[in-house]
Specification:
single chain; about 500 residues; alpha+beta; TATA-Binding Protein; 3 domains; six-stranded antiparallel beta sheet; elongated
Amino acid sequence: MGTALVLLFLLALAAIPGALLPQRSLNEAKVAQYIAEHPTIGPWLDRAQAFDVFSSFWFTAIYVLLFISLVGCLTPRLIEHARSLRATPVPAPRNLSRLPKHHALERPGTPDEVAATVRKRLRGWRTVTRTGTDGATEISAEKGYLREFGNIVFHFSLLGLLVAIAAGKLFGYEGNVIVIADGGPGFCSASPAAFDSFRAGNTVDGTSLHPICLRVNDFQADYLPNGQATSFAADIDFQAGEDLSTGTWRPYRLEVNHPLRVGGDRIYLQGHGYAPTFTVTFPDGQTRTQTLQWRPDDQLTFLSSGVMRFDPPGGTYPDAGERRKNQLAIQGLFAPTEQLHGTLLSSSFPALNDPAVAVDIYKGDTGLDTGRPQSLFTLDPRLIDQGRLAKKARVNLNAGDSTRLDDGTVVRFDGAVPFINVQVSHDPAQIWVLVFAMTMMAGLLVSLVVRRRRVWVRITPALPGTVNVEMGGLARTDNSGWGDEFERLTARLVPEAASVPPIEEKVV
């Protein structure tokens, strides 16, 4: 057990880097940023798998050793407990007066009558009656075997909990995706590529995901006057199983801490924000409309930032190079409830009361044709520094307002719609985690409440028609409260003990 405790401490200690350092399974971009900002220690930490703590060889080694230690610790204890359940209570000590709890008195009756009465009143105790060498009748009784059983259940449940968590990490997955409400395109979880971020278990290759499709019809949020959210929920439709072939959509109200459970997956509502809509009318009259989520920078007022990139429609610029030079990028701030400080835009409330934007409009090569991944929320500053993107306007727009560029291009802000952040989680061992957690707490409670104790009663013939009754008690684990319990037990076994002065009593 000492080894298991040391390994459990080491496991907790080994998990600290996973909490302090960015993890590649959660955010690979942050890991790359950390290594770039710490060029000396970053590569060494990467070699030591400090950015993949929970799948590293050293964390796995501690985990496996903890399993082995727990099994090696619990198996002998289980065997020993099984033997103790079959064993009979030990004989009474020669001198009962040396025990921490002792009581002796003289009462009328014969040894057989008194012994029968004591055995009857020791119901629930494991008892055995013996005859001493001096003719005395001895009764040995023991109780509290459930304490060790609870202790064993606790430790085996801990072992099972660790196994279940490991199984969940091996065979489970977790993905996050943003879904735009009010007519947005929806989402289907058939492939990891459909998620904005996806964290797979070590055995998950993404080919056996349970397909679920959902669309968000509406989103409602309630706020206090200071802007603090009190509740938010989304009315969604979803398809799963046979619904995908029949085209049937089922309604569901998705709320915080009330996930949609289907096909072994859980779909959580984690957060929300807003997706502005812009329409660009190019000089030849063709239009492009785009609705895209922007990142909330202020969680209280939902002042958000983001960028949109527009590629001219086919035929507007026949030459590919010319088309690339006439791409548009819109970058700036969005406020759900407009508040102006001069010309500076901010938001006074998180609800969509008076949407407005403050944007910079760029023209040129937005990098859409390079194949290089770009941030969804900011432009690549290298494109601006290299002169490939040129700022054409800076303007504040309310819903429905538009601005015209020098070449006749019109940019209109159409408003905004809410979006929700959805997490799809699959953990095949979650039920076992709950079961083992409950049995672990039950075993712990039993091991703390139940006490292992022993009682011996020696009945010796005295004067004709009377016997000497001597009782001794011993708590094998916790002495707390044992004195009062022994007194109550004495009064129940030999009622005369409550009124007859004892021959000898010792309380330690």
